[in-house]
Structure formats: structure tokens, C-alpha cells
Design brief:
The complex is a heterodimer of chains A (about 220) and B (about 130). Chain A has about 220 residues and is of the alpha/beta class. Chain A has helices at about 10-15, 30-35, 40-55, 75, 80-85, 95-105, 150, 180-190, 195, and strands spanning about 1-5, 20-25, 60-65, 90, 110, 115-125, 125-130, 170, 170-175. Chain A folds into 2 domains: about 1-120, Rossmann fold, CATH 3.40.50.2300; about 135-210, no CATH class. Chain A has a 4-stranded parallel β-sheet, with helices on both faces. Chain A is elongated, with a radius of gyration of 22 Å. Chain B has a domain at about 15-105. The chains are: A alpha/beta (about 220), B alpha/beta (about 130).
């Protein structure tokens, strides 16, 4: 899932300082699972905004609405009947959702309430961890199912580097060395011979280096 | 026991402090209460095992939210007592009331008459200092 982190109230209040009526849009997908921008977080943020404004002797109308997804126009279009009643939209979706809402409602300022962080997994209740960088060319078959791009601080394809110590990364003593994890996993799988294979230079064109990406399935297009 | 405690403490019954959600407390502050405290069972004696421990964590988090908002985390507290500790209950009610009195009225009260999304804003919610 896409993991995000809600911005501080101070930053959000700065963004909405000139508005008195805002539409606060949550998203029922990834940001709900990572407890950053779902219906519940929408309720809490709306309450915080109202309280902060009331404390300063001002009022603020916050309409709370959570869409199934903010990255599909079918859902984004559902707010069309009442979007005009508000001065701005504060979106609690990931960066993709914020931008798609902004594309669909070009006359409205659309503001992000979330810092989109990474593609990751839930390690335990309340703990999320990065697993994928969406580089566009998956090498997990060669690395025991552990991604050297996302899990190694240097994204080394043939690691580890000299900064690996006792299985930890030099960047942060709490962070596992991605390549140590790969070696351990290959051992478990009895595939350590794979570690001997040199992974050639990666073509980063499929990643962000090739510019914004687009995927088209002609057979699915209407 | 016929114990008395401050009349401005309004009790909201919940089956367990684990039921207390962030929004329950935030809505109380939106309604204009000056302070909220949770009266949970003694730690380690939760009928639902971890309800009061979860509430404790939520209170800690809520305090940071209230500080951010500018109302002040000091207006929210959690206490632990057993149902057999009537004296302690009355003592805490007095203690919290004094604490909140010291902090003064909630800063959101100035604009409380403005509709703020709280349903059924009846007089019970409007006036007293509230306890959960």
C-alpha cells in the first residue's frame, strides 16, 4: 500500500488560513489502512481544525467526506454536486489522489494534508515499513524476494557495502542491511549460488529517471 | 457512602475506557467543556484485558493533539481506580475540578454558539465541566 503521514496541524492551519469553508476529503484505500487519511482521520482533523479556529475566536466550516478512492474519476466526481460550496479542498489522500482531485476541480485550490511517504507493508498494528520503490524493473527473483533497491540505503545491486555491520546499515543502526537480509534469505532457500551472479547495470529508464510513467492496456480501453 | 463530589462533573458511561475514541473526547471539547478525564479500572485489572492500557495510550496521544490545537493537554487526564474506591473517585473528581478551574475556561467557549458540527448540543453538554 501507499503509506503516508499526516502533516502537522500547524502546517495545515497555515495552508487553510485564508479559508472559512473547506471540504475535507478522505480516501478509503491505502491511507485508511495506514491510519493517515481515512474516515476516522478526517473526523479527527476536522475536529482539530474547528477547535483551533474557535480558540482564536473564528469559525470554520469543515465538511467531512471520504471517497472510496481519490485516484479514480468515478469517485472523485461524486463531490461535484457540492464542491462549489467550498472555498478550498483539503485532501487526505496520497499525492496521486490530491493531484487527481486538483485535475478534476481546476477552479478550486486543492491542498495536501498528508506527506506521502512510501510503498510498504504493515509490520504490526501501527508500524509500517518500506518495501518497494516502483523502479519499473523487478529483480526480486534474483535477490531472494528482498528488494535491493528499496531495502538498501544505496540501492546497490551487488552488495553489501562496507557500511554493513552486524546485519545493520550504517545509515541507521535500527535499519537492517538489505543485502544481509538477501544473503540470509538466499541461504535459507539454498540458493546462495545466486549471490555469485553479478547483476548487471540497471536501466533506470523504467524508473523515475525516464520521466513520468504511463501504462496503457489497449484491450481494456473503452 | 453518601460521598459528595463537584456537581459540575458530568459522567458519561462507557463499558470500558477502551471504548473511548479520540473523537469522543474531541467532540466534548468542541461542545465547550473545560476538561475531560477518564476514570478507568486499575492497570492489570481490565475485564477486557487491555482496555485501560489502550485508553492510556490514546490519552497520551490526545494530549499532544490538544497541545497542537492550543487548548492544552492539561485539560485531559486519565485516572485509574477500582469500583470499590468510592473515596478515591470523589477525591479525583475534586482534584480534576480544581485543576481545570486553575486552567480557566476553555478557549473555544468564546465562539461556542457557532454551529461546529456537534449534533444535539443540548444544555447538558453546553454548561458543565465534563467527565468521561
Amino acid at each position: 500500500m501507499i503509506v503516508g503521514n499526516r502533516k502537522s496541524l500547524e502546517e495545515i492551519l497555515r495552508m487553510v488560513r485564508s479559508y472559512r469553508k473547506i471540504l475535507l476529503l478522505g480516501c478509503n484505500e491505502c491511507v485508511t489502512v495506514c491510519a493517515a487519511g481515512g474516515e476516522r482521520e478526517v473526523g479527527v482533523l476536522a475536529s482539530e481544525l474547528r477547535l483551533a479556529r474557535m480558540k482564536d475566536g473564528q469559525e470554520m466550516e469543515v465538511r467531512e467526506h471520504t471517497l472510496e478512492r481519490q485516484c479514480d474519476h468515478e469517485y472523485v466526481d461524486q463531490v461535484k454536486p457540492f464542491v462549489e460550496d467550498y472555498e478550498a479542498i483539503l485532501s487526505m489522500a496520497c499525492g496521486a489522489g490530491v493531484q487527481y482531485v486538483a485535475e478534476r476541480y481546476r477552479a478550486k485550490p486543492v491542498l495536501p494534508a498528508i506527506d506521502t511517504s512510501f510503498l510498504g507493508v504493515t509490520l504490526e498494528q501501527g508500524v509500517w515499513s518500506e518495501r518497494c520503490q516502483g523502479c519499473g524493473t523487478c529483480v526480486l527473483d534474483q535477490t531472494g524476494g528482498i528488494c535491493p533497491i528499496a531495502r538498501c540505503a544505496k540501492s546497490l545491486l551487488n552488495g553489501p557495502c562496507g557500511g554493513s555491520s552486524n546485519g545493520k546499515c550504517e545509515v541507521d543502526k535500527e535499519t537492517d542491511c538489505g543485502w544481509q537480509l538477501i544473503i540470509d534469505r538466499l541461504k535459507e532457500l539454498g540458493q546462495l549460488d545466486r549471490y555469485e551472479e553479478i547483476i548487471p547495470i540497471k536501466d533506470w529508464n523504467t524508473s523515475r529517471d525516464g520521466g513520468p510513467r504511463k501504462r496503457i492496456r489497449e484491450d481494456l480501453k473503452l | 457512602m453518601r460521598l459528595s463530589y463537584p456537581a459540575n462533573v458530568k459522567i458519561v458511561k462507557v463499558p470500558c475506557t477502551g471504548r473511548v475514541d479520540l473523537l469522543l473526547v474531541l467532540k466534548a471539547f468542541e461542545a465547550g467543556v473545560d476538561g475531560v478525564y477518564l476514570a478507568g479500572c486499575l492497570e492489570g485489572e481490565c475485564h477486557f484485558l487491555k482496555g485501560n492500557l489502550r485508553a492510556k495510550k490514546r490519552v497520551q496521544y490526545l494530549k499532544t493533539l490538544l497541545d497542537e490545537v492550543g487548548i492544552g493537554g492539561g485539560r485531559l487526564e486519565m485516572y485509574n481506580m477500582s469500583s470499590a474506591q468510592g473515596l478515591r473517585f470523589a477525591e479525583i473528581a475534586r482534584e480534576m475540578t480544581e485543576k481545570v478551574k486553575g486552567l480557566g475556561p476553555s478557549p473555544v467557549k468564546r465562539i461556542r454558539n457557532v454551529e461546529c458540527g456537534v449534533r444535539n448540543r443540548n444544555s447538558e453538554i453546553r454548561n458543565p465541566k465534563s467527565a468521561l
